[in-house]
Design brief:
Elements lengths: L1 H13 L2 H17 E2 L2 E2 L1 H12 L2 H17 L8 H4 L7 H20 L7 H10 L3 H9 L7 H5 L6 H20 L1 H9 L5 H23 L12
Antiparallel strand pairs: 1-2
Helix pairs in contact: 1-10, 2-6, 2-10, 3-4, 3-6, 4-6, 4-12, 6-7, 6-12, 7-10, 10-11, 11-12
């Protein structure tokens, strides 16, 4: 597993930005549209809305569900469609990315955003970086604005979409070379590794959920008409 983490970083370094961005877009499309064994963002949001009866309560439920899924062992092997997805990424990273995007997309859908809109998909991709990383990239001038501004932009910008995909893919590579590699090493410790890995994946997912809830405010709270 540690070798897989190292190899992943090397693969991304040697690939062109366009190829790396294309891999990420494949993940985002799969997470939002779903597959035969994996309901997409809209279907997941509808299921929790039906069971909870209220949009914010539904968001609470789907966040809890995705945090649990992120913490669970063997998630990837239970999702048939993901196994056949030709993304060329280590299983844990691909699985976590799919879960994160679907969760963020479900939250956005329940807040009134059209996850089929390419502007919204670009915004959801950017949100995968989390609050601190997005703020840093915007402050450094490496990204122009926030996920909310991208989702509600008057026009779709293909160049910005490519830039976001490349930035997010680069961030995933960096995580594999630092934090995640450390977790992989700890996971090898008997009776400790599995629990630590589950806790870290769950905590990262919970943090992304909080950011998505703050960023994708209900459409009626923005100056842009609902889509």
């Amino acid at each position: 597993m540690a070798n897989a983490a190292s190899d992943f970083g090397k693969q991304l370094v040697t690939r062109t930005p366009e190829v790396a961005g294309g891999l990420l877009r494949s993940i985002v499309d799969f997470a939002l549209d779903g597959g035969s064994a994996f309901p997409g963002a809209k279907a997941t949001a509808a299921r929790f809305l039906q069971s909870r009866g209220d949009r914010e309560a539904a968001i609470d439920g789907l966040v809890t569900y995705h945090v649990g899924m992120a913490s669970a062992q063997g998630f990837v092997t239970s999702v048939g469609g993901l196994i056949t997805l030709p993304v060329g990424l280590p299983a844990n990273i691909a699985g976590m990315a799919v879960l994160s995007v679907r969760m963020i997309g479900s939250i956005a859908h329940l807040r009134g955003y059209d996850v089929s809109d390419r502007r919204v998909r670009a915004a959801l991709t950017l949100a995968m970086l989390g609050d601190d990383e997005v703020r840093r990239l915007v402050a450094d001038g490496r990204l122009p604005t926030s996920p909310l501004a991208i989702a509600t932009a008057p026009m779709f910008d293909p160049a910005l979409e490519r830039l976001i995909s490349e930035r997010v893919m680069g961030s995933l590579a960096g995580r594999m070379g630092s934090k995640h590699l450390a977790v992989v090493v700890v996971r090898r410790i008997p009776l400790v590794g599995g629990g630590v890995g589950a806790a870290v994946d769950g905590w990262l997912t919970f943090g992304l959920a909080g950011y998505a809830r703050r960023e994708f405010v209900a459409r009626h709270q923005t100056s842009i008409p609902p889509q």
